[in-house]
Structures are given as structure tokens and as C-alpha cells.
Amino acid sequence: MKEFELIRRYFTEQVVKRKDVHLGIGDDCALVTPSERQHIAVTTDTLVAGVHFPLDTSPRAIGHKSIAVNLSDLAAMGAEPSWVSLAITLPEIDENWIDEFCVGVFELCEFYNVQLIGGDTTQGPLSITVTAQGQIPFEKYISRSGAKAGDWLYVTGEIGGAALALQHILGNVKVAPKYQDEIQKRLDFPKARVLAGQALREYATSAIDLSDGLVADLKHICEASGVGANIVLDDLPISEALSDTLGLEHFYDLALKGGDDYELLFSVSEDNKVGMETALANTGNKVTCIGQLNGSDKITTTLNNEPVNIKIQNYEHFTKSTFDE
Ligand code: ADP
Ligand code: MG
């Protein structure tokens, strides 16, 4: 199968046909017509086999994840996703593989009414680069830099499950069979918090999506906003699989430093707490208050109201990871 045949067969036919796509796949460029008074939010993420996902990851999961991680970045800004392009480098043309990969890509695109408008197809070691574009009403975006001392810190969903799955795959921890499917799903099929992100436009002073780990990503908000933070460990919404598998110290370590959760971490002023909690409940998202921002230049943690020291290095148990950034 030639490149053109492959593109026509797998990527050109699509369920989603947006009115604001003037020209989709097939010409030298796609043409889109954004709504008036909207910012276009643009983001790109690359997934490289063996670096960002284990080599034996299912093609459907790879397709899903390559779209989800980009929609997650759009969500963190409060954008409504509109269009994606897909640059894919394949070692060979394996039709079953591409079929399954496309299931992963298009099920997410269809769910969020996102149209694939172009891309590039080349041969080489497996790697997928997606560029996603979304729209945000003028000046309604959420940045990393708007947090204020005194704001409350929140996270959507649960954290730590994906990092636990990765450590399980790497043979560093043994997870009970009853949790294995669930955490594998957390790692392979992350949910981008798209509706939560849009609902937060009205309430959040800052937001980021959790890709590198809670502390690492919180650090980005703190640096950009010029604030410090205290995390109340007792309040972290830690995946039960994680708290059941590891001892206290190790599970907090993984919850704070493990990545790949793709939950939203965001700050809200005291005045907006109740409104935000109601709005997020209406989108079907669980949110948990996990601490507060302050005027220091540090990230601290407390447990049972006592300060605890978090080591920023990984525990030696977890340094074997070959999939770290
Ligand atoms: P060009 O050589 O002008 O860059 P290509 O031959 O690479 O064009 O691609 C032809 C058309 O197919 C273009 O519209 C391009 O955006 C689209 N396309 C190529 N690869 C993909 C892909 N993996 N997914 C979606 N669209 C693709
Ligand atoms: Mg090309």
C-alpha cells in the first residue's frame, strides 16, 4: 500500500464533519474558519515508542493516548477542542495495527466532535505527533500564572493509578490482580478533562494538566504565579489501587511524583469555591481540595497537621524507570 492509499483508506473518511472546516484532508493545507472573538489554542505533543509508552502497548491505546494528551492540554487552558492533525511515523504498514490505532484516535475525536484535518505519514521508528487546536472566548483562557496566595488548590479525579501501572509493568512493584485492569486502563486510556476545563474558565485563577506528576506540575503554577503551596497529604484523592499496594511513604511518593494522570490541577479563590464545586459537579467531575497557595517560595506538605519533608528525588525503588521524561 502506498502512502496516498493509506491516507485515503484510514484518515480521509470520517464521521466528524465540522462546519468550521472549510477544507480538510487532501490539499497542501487544511483551512478552518474560527468563530468570531475566539482565541485559537494550539498545542502539540509527541509520543515515541519505548519512551512515552512501553513497546507492547496496544495500538488502540496509542491512538487514544496520542489524542487524549493533547486534549488534556487544551482542557487545562479552558479551550473547547475543534481540530487535530496527526503526524505518524510507522516502521511498516501493518493494516491490523493501523486499524486498531484509528479506532483509538477516532473514538475520542467523535466523542468530542473534533475533526482530523491533516497530518503527515512517514516511515521510521514508531512515533506519533498530534497538534490539537481549540477555541476559547476572547480573554477567557486559564493560564498558569494567575494564582494568588490564599487561593485553594484542587485536583480533578484520582491520582497515582497511572504511575502505579507503569511501576508494575517495569517490575518494580507487584499489584494485586484485582487492580491490574483498572490501573492499566488509567495508563493507556487517560481521560482528558475537557468539560471540566471549560467549566473552570469562570472560576479558576490558574490551571495545569498533570502529566509530569503533582509536585512537578504544581511547581510550574507556583513559578509562573509567584506563589508557594502547601499540600495536605491526608486529603489527596489517591487511587485505591495505589494506597492498597504500597506502604504509606511509598504511596505518597508515587502520588506526588508519578506522572501520566492527566487530571487537572487548578486554583480557586475563596469566593469562587462553592460556585466552582457546583459547576464541576454538573460536568460529572469529582474535584478535591488538596491544599492552599501561600506567599512563600516553597512547596510543602503536611500530614495529620504536621509538616512532612518530601524528598524531590525519586525513591531508589523507582529509579529503574526507562519511561521517565
Ligand atoms: P504534502 O506532500 O503536500 O505534505 P501529503 O502527501 O503528506 O501532502 O498528504 C496529503 C494529504 O493528506 C494532506 O492534506 C495531509 O494533511 C493529509 N495527511 C497525510 N498524512 C496524514 C495523517 N496521518 N493523518 C491525517 N491526514 C494526513
Ligand atoms: Mg507530506
Key descriptive features of the protein:
34% helix, disordered C terminus, four-stranded mixed β-sheet, 325 residues, binds magnesium ion, seven-stranded mixed β-sheet, binds adenosine-5'-diphosphate, alpha+beta, 26% strand, 60s Ribosomal Protein L30, Chain: A, Phosphoribosyl-aminoimidazole Synthetase, Chain A, domain 2, 10 helices
Describe the structure.
It is a single chain. With 325 residues, this protein is an alpha+beta fold. The chain has 2 domains: 3-137, PurM-like, N-terminal domain (60s Ribosomal Protein L30, Chain: A, 2-Layer Sandwich), CATH 3.30.1330.10; 152-308, PurM-like C-terminal domain (Phosphoribosyl-aminoimidazole Synthetase, Chain A, domain 2). It is 34% helix and 26% strand. The chain has helices spanning 3-12, 59-77, 95-111, 161-169, 177-188, 194-200, 214-225, 240-245, 248-257, 273-282; strands at residues 21-23, 31-32, 38-48, 80-90, 115-123, 127-137, 152-156, 204-209, 228-232, 264-268, 287-294, 299-303, 306-308. The strands form 3 sheets. It has a 7-stranded mixed beta sheet, sandwiched between helices. Strands 3-6-4-5 form a 4-stranded mixed beta sheet. It is globular. Residues 312-325 have low confidence and may be disordered. Adenosine-5'-diphosphate binds at residues 7, 11, 25-28, 86, 88, 116, 118-121.
